[in-house]
Amino acid sequence: MPVVMADEKLSALLNTLQVPLPELKKEANFGLKMRIQHVAYMLQFVGEEGFNFSFSTYFRGPYSVDLAKKCSLMTENPEGAIGRSELARWFFDHDLEWLNAAVTIMMLSSSHSGGEREWFEAVRQYRERLSEEDFKSILAELRKRKIIAV
Question: What is the pTM of this model?
Answer without folding.
Answer: 0.60
